[in-house]
Design goal:
Elements: H1 2-9, E1 27-28, H2 31-39, E2 48-52, H3 60-66, E3 70-75, H4 78-87, E4 92-95, E5 112-117, H5 120-133, E6 139-145, H6 146-152, H7 163-168, E7 172-180, E8 185-186, E9 193-200, H8 210-220, H9 228-231, H10 238-246, H11 260-269
The structure holds S-adenosylmethionine (SAM).
Length: 276
Amino acid sequence: MAATDDIFVRSPRELPASPKRSLGQNFLVDPNIARKIVAALRIGPDDTILEIGPGRGALSEWIVKAGPGRFLAVEKDLALALALPRDHPGVAVVAQDALRLDWGRLAGLARLKIVGNLPYNVASPLVWDMCAGLRGFAFAVFMVQHEVARRMAASPGTKEYGALTAFLGNYVQVEYLFKVGPNVFRPRPKVDSAVVRLTPLARMPDVDDPGQLAWAIKHCFSNRRKQMRRTLRGQWSEDMGHLFERHGYSPECRAEDLSPDFFRILAKSLKKPGAS
Ligand code: SAM
C-alpha cells in the first residue's frame, strides 16, 4: 500500500526523478550504514557540518538529528538541491559543483567537519583540492570506491601507494573505517565502497606551493616502474643524488618507495617545464 499512498499524496511532478548516472547517483538506502557514517562524525552542538552531494538526504537525515550548530550542503543536481531543505529543514543547500568550491573561504567555519558519499569521478579531485586548499578543519568522513579508499590509506612500497596517497600524506592522516557492499545502494554500483576518515596532521608541514608538489608527485608517478634517476633524467644531478642518499633512498628506487615527506622536499629541487 505504501507505494500507492505515495502516488496519491504526491503529484507526478514531485515524484523523484530517475538517478542520473552522469552525477554518480547511487543513493544509499540502508539507514544502518547512513547512521554508522554519521556516527563517525561525532557531531557536537558547536560543529559546522558540510555535506558534499546530499542527494535525497540519506545522510542528511541523521546529521539533522545529531543537532550540529550549522549544517551546509553542496549539491550539483538542482532538483535535489531544491528538495533537500523541504524534506530536511535545518540544512542550507547551495546548488553548485563541489569541484568548484573555494576551500580557502571555508577555513573560518567553527569546528568544520566534512562528509559525503562521493561519486567515483568526484572523489579523488575533490579530496585533493580540499587538502590543498582548506586549513583548520576538524576532519572529514567520506564514502568512496573501495579501491580509492585503499589507495588513500596505502603505505609506501605497496601497489596501492600512488600519487593520491603521496599528496594526501602531506596534509592528512587517512583511516580506513569500514567496507560497504553494493546492495545498500539504488541503483547498485558494480564495485564495493568503503568509508575513510581524513584528519589533518597534528604537525602540518609547510607546503609552500601545493601546485608544485602536485606536479612533482604526478611527474614521478608518470611511470611507476621506472627508477627515479631515469624518471628525473633531465634534472638529475650529483646534488640530487646526495639528497636521495641523505634520506635513505638509492637513485634506483621507484616513486612508490618514496615517502610523502620526501616528495615535499624533492619538489623544491625540481623544475616544472615552462616555469621561470
Ligand atoms: N548522499 C546521498 C546518499 O548517500 O544517498 C547521495 C550520494 S550519490 C553517490 C552522490 C551525490 O552527489 C548525488 O546526489 C549527486 O547529484 C551529487 N553530485 C555529483 N557530482 C557532484 C558535484 N560535482 N558536486 C556536488 N554534488 C555532486
